[in-house]
Design goal:
This protein is of the alpha/beta class and 371 residues long. Helix content is 52%, strand content 12%. The structure holds zinc ion. The site of zinc ion has 6 residues, from α6 and α12.
Length: 371
């Protein structure tokens, strides 16, 4: 094995009213900067960033803010980078969901500043993730052209701050979506094994796969407790916060996505065509049911767990008709092929089992995703 270095998020601040004690935490971890840039959106400003601003200002920080308006695109990163340059040296806080955190992470990384993530809901695992995800553009954050979503590697945050009261009070559908996105690892690890056995991927970590599967098993077993039981809810948050560690141990982001994310992209495109708004995790949840079926895994257990957590399990629940799901499935191979151009290692089961219309319909009906 070639030696490689692992970089992990080493500081967490986790618990009730954590954001009101943020300045104290910054002193504790010896943050040198006296300037802070807060990256948030209109909603997360009200939910958390405003309080953070007050708390930091009261203890001597000069605080500026960036309100994200257009999503995960280059222009928003440019906007944040400008503020960071003005206040430099400063510490950057990415406050909110995946988009605000990823813009905070990427802009800080590109300006060589440190960043702290403050998730206000758990719809994604972006809080400790070492990548930031952006929408395809002719000129992306990394100056390259991208057809679809793409990642840039930024490394872990200096710290991750989770105010459990704020997360608990966020609309539940966000937490349910994050939960569904996590179950993806059931299919992703299966696909990773396939890619490795076919020589498409040179990295493989039995330890990371064991850990991912154990965490998925915990989440599935406790699906009905997570919303109401304090300890199970805490367990859920800690599993989600562990993703940066898991990816670094894996040595490969393959542990996070496989064929279920391929299908999820198809479903997302169908939703865009039908003009319905959807959450990434909800699309992935359906993708995981469908691909677990194709892989011969326990898709029923996935479906039951998603129902118990309160995530969608049918096309109708995510605003799609039967035909849309069949189309997303039959297009899966083409979508996977387009990913392989960028990342030859993301080889999945849909490259080997051609999803004909007949098979696609059979899977969708067999799992009850369509009627
Ligand atoms: Zn995902």
């Amino acid at each position: 094995m070639e030696p490689r270095s692992l970089t992990l998020c080493s500081r967490y601040f986790f618990g009730s009213r954590a954001i009101d004690k943020l300045a104290q935490f910054c002193r504790e971890i010896r943050v040198q900067e006296k300037n802070a840039v807060l990256v948030c959106d209109g909603t997360t400003w009200k939910v958390a960033a405003e309080r953070i601003s007050v708390s930091l200002s009261a203890s001597g920080f000069r605080v500026d803010r960036v309100i994200v308006e257009k999503g995960a695109v280059r222009s928003e990163v440019e906007k944040a980078r400008e503020r960071i340059r003005l206040l430099s040296p400063c510490i950057v806080f990415g406050i909110g969901g995946g988009v605000s955190m990823d813009i905070g992470k990427a802009s800080a990384f590109l300006e060589k500043a440190c960043w702290i993530t403050v998730p206000t809901s758990f719809a994604t695992d972006a809080m400790t993730g070492i990548n930031a995800t952006f929408r395809g553009e002719r000129r992306g954050v990394d100056d390259k052209a991208h057809e679809g979503d793409y990642d840039i590697r930024v490394g872990p945050p200096l710290a991750c701050v989770v105010d459990t009261d704020i997360v608990r009070n966020a609309p539940w559908k966000f937490q349910a979506a994050g939960y569904a996105d996590y179950l993806a690892k059931l299919c992703a690890t299966h696909d990773w094994g396939l890619a490795y056995s076919r020589g498409k991927d040179q990295t493989y970590s039995e330890y990371a796969i064991m850990l991912a599967r154990a965490q998925v098993e915990y989440l599935m077993k406790n699906a009905s407790r997570i919303r109401k039981d304090e300890r199970a809810f805490e367990g859920f948050l800690q599993v989600m916060m562990n993703d940066g560690f898991l990816t670094e141990m894996a040595g490969n982001s393959r542990i996070l996505f496989g064929s279920e994310h391929v299908v999820a992209q198809g479903l997302m495109e169908e939703q865009m065509r039908a003009n319905v708004a959807g959450l990434h995790g909800e699309q992935v949840g359906l993708g995981t049911i469908l691909m677990a079926y194709l892989q011969g895994q326990d898709w029923m257990a996935v479906k039951t767990a998603l129902e118990q957590i309160g995530a969608p399990v049918t096309a109708e629940q995510i605003g799609l008709g039967d035909e849309s799901v069949i189309r997303a499935l039959t297009r899966a191979r083409a979508i996977n092929e387009s990913w392989l151009r960028d990342r030859p290692d993301i080889y999945t089961i849909v490259m080997e089992k051609p999803l004909t219309r007949e098979l696609a319909k059979g899977i969708a009906k067999g799992t009850g995703v369509i009627r």
